[in-house]
Amino acid sequence: MSDQPVSVIPFLHALASTGGSDLHCKVGSAPRIRVDGRLRKLQVPPLTPEDTRNMVAQVLPEELVAQFRDIHEADFAFSLSGVGRFRVNAYVARGTDSLVFRRVAIGAQPMAELGLPDVLGELALEPRGLVLVTGPTGSGKTTTLASMVDLINESREVNIITIEDPIEVLHTDKKAIISQREVRSDTLDFTNALRGAMRQDPDVILVGEMRDIETVRAALTAAETGHLVLATLHTVDAQDTINRVVDFFTPHEQGQIRATLSQTLRGIVSQRLVRQADGHGRKLVAEVMVNNGRIAEAIVDPSSQPPIADLITDGEYYKMQTFDQHLFQLVRDGEVTYEDAIAIASRPHDLSVTLRNEGVIA
Description:
Organism: Demequina capsici
Pfam families: T2SSE
Protein name: PilT/PilU family type 4a pilus ATPase
InterPro entries: AAA+_ATPase (IPR003593), P-loop_NTPase (IPR027417), PilT/PilU (IPR006321), T2SS/T4SS_dom (IPR001482), T4SS_GSP_E_ATPase (IPR050921)
Family: Belongs to the GSP E family.
Largest sheet: 7 strands, mixed
């Protein structure tokens, strides 16, 4: 390496110009960018401890310097003029500084462009209740929520309050007014912001992530009292999501929480991403659960109904679908290969049998 300190700026330019989603900077390796789900190495020398230390100093907000020194972890947003906005996690690994940058959007993409099921638009325009968007990290939850908020913004004269960590998609007022609040910059934490939101005349509240019992309780209360609450969880499917929400609470509270959830929940959208058949980009695969009478009964008393996955399978009338039903459509239409679909299917054998029985594969 030269004596000149290495700057992260050229790497962020490379991330944006290639359409990548993430930039990884760690000692001992060249920076890598994630494009269409795969990490690609930039053609530069491996980074040294001094390089990554300098990068952290370049981007870390002053108010987080002490925190990073004490706990070796910091989440924050970073904007680069002419390039874009990034969500950043700085951390220490084996005694050296490391960073991951996630490129975020200015403005939301329309639902049709994202390939989201039409029923998400209906859920977004519900007047009240709880809508959950779930999936692993990097599955597009933030992008989906942003498109739902944008639809509300274009359609309804309401007050939308978002609580995010950090803000990833910037919205401008259209029919609605939107106040975007960033944890640590604009508010102490999700729980305090949610309590405050109830005094800010909201119609719609977006909770970036339900991380703890206080946030879950506050979100359920807001949904119960006539607001539309949009939130995310790191869960794999609808059944897992319901279990996770209930498990936040002590056993003696869980019966009441199930009853509350059965009444307030409007729907759950769980997401995965799969590579497109042409190798360019990824397709969204979604499981959609819409709350109806049988679903509500299954939430209150799981033993009273078939498994929720089976209710979703049989719920086409209510515009429900499982991951594997969506994957079937994508393989049938040539948008995703059989091999890639099987790799992320919930029930690979059953999906394979269905594809063969329907003549999609030999």
